[in-house]
Amino acid sequence: MPLIYALIARGNVVLCEHADSEGNFPTVTRLLLCRLPTDKQRMSYIYDRYVFHYIVCEGLTFLTMADDSAGFALPFEFLEAVKQQFFPEHREAAKTGIALSLQGNFGPTLKTMLDSFNSHQTLDDFRQIRTQIDGIHSVMIDSIDKILQRGERIDLLVDQSEQLNQEAVTFRRQARRLKNALWWRNVRIIAMIVGIISMLCVIIGMVSCGGVTFPSCRGS
């Protein structure tokens, strides 16, 4: 899953969030929100093998944490899509909302969009958003250590157990199919061998007994 976590915040007040994995990244993100430069509207921060991407619009921060393999286009397409989905109904509530006040209203939408972008099922539907993203190729990229003070850095932990469990289920399913296929192949081989042996016995009997009707053997 390239996109792991997403949130919408006003300053350091997280209004709603969703994570597809377990880990301490919500804690790291809240620390990061206090340090994000307010003069940067679009930025990416590298943190070990993960990257925090965010955009700022109308005083709100739209942020996603992604695996570094996700690149930059996908995370920012996701953030632009979230922003366009969020503002029409929640613009006013976001101005005064307390922590997680929009979790019930927009949290499920955030989950659906995160899942959709991760599965690429709706990525084509949002391709037009790319034309609205100015200068993705010039997104500023920096190390997280540049904005964290000494002693603030926390080892980022991401529990991929859910993903590993799904992979294990898939592996077991494939192993079961392979086992069944091998079993049926063995059955066919055994049936073929039995058929060949039976045919040889019939041929030997016909030769020994003088013909197709086994006259010699019946006469005796």
UniProtKB/TrEMBL annotation:
Annotated compartments: Endomembrane system
InterPro entries hit by this protein: Longin-like_dom_sf, Longin_dom, Synaptobrevin-like, Synaptobrevin-like_transport, V_SNARE_CC
Protein's name in the database: Vesicle-associated membrane protein 7-like isoform, related
Species for this entry: Eimeria mitis
Record's bilayer topology term: Single-pass type IV membrane protein
Longin domain location: 7-110
Family: Belongs to the synaptobrevin family.
Highest taxon, organism lineage: Eukaryota
Listed GO biological process terms: protein transport; vesicle-mediated transport
Gene Ontology CC annotations of this record: cytoplasm; endomembrane system; membrane
Lineage: Eukaryota, Sar, Alveolata, Apicomplexa, Conoidasida
Domain V-SNARE coiled-coil homology: 125-185
UniProt KW Nucleotide-binding keyword: no
Membrane-spanning residues: 189-214
PANTHER family: SNARE PROTEINS, VESICLE-ASSOCIATED MEMBRANE PROTEIN 9
